[in-house]
Amino acid sequence: MRPTFFSTDEYEVRVFDTNRGRRLVAAVEIVSPSNKDRPESRRVFVAKCEALLRQGVSVAIVDLVTSRHFNLYDELLELIGQDDPSMGAEPPATYAAECRWTERGRKRVLDTWSHVLTLGQPLPTLPLWLAADLAVPLELEESYEETCRALRIA
């Protein structure tokens, strides 16, 4: 049997804690069209996010792809047996979400923050958790505007 290799574009930011031996603490996964074009591509993306969560990494997913109507955040939640009622019965194709596992007493709980993205509206700010009690704001709109300025895009 020959291995199957998928050609996917990967856009991500990984945050490491240098005080704890360069431990990966957060990842920002930016969905590309190739992440959503085939069932195999979607499974690979979702499995990567699930593996990061299992390792205690805070995961943000930003999906601005309008050409393919799949919600990878919803697929991730389904894989780990969770749901996010704020996504509605028909999860939107464009969204931004952040999730992490936390301990509450003796119970392990998935904390989530999600936003439906609407064309023409500002992008949200998500918490990017670097430790159990430390989050920094992930300013998506400011990052987008700065990128447009740097690339000289109108």
Describe it.
There is one protein chain. Helix 2 crosses helix 3. The strands form two sheets. Strands 1-2-3-4-5 form a five-stranded mixed beta sheet, with helices on one face. A hairpin with a 5-residue loop joins strand 1 and strand 2. It has one domain. The protein is of the alpha+beta class and 154 residues long. The radius of gyration is 16 Å and the shape is globular.
Write a concise keyword list for the protein shown above.
154 residues, alpha+beta, five-stranded mixed sheet, two-stranded antiparallel ribbon, 26% helix, 35% strand, globular, disordered N terminus
What is the domain tally?
1
Oligomer designation: single chain
- The termini sit apart by 49 Å
Helix proportion: 25-40%
Low-confidence stretches: 1-7
Number of strands: 7
Beta-strand residue fraction: 35-45%
What is the global morphology? Answer: globular
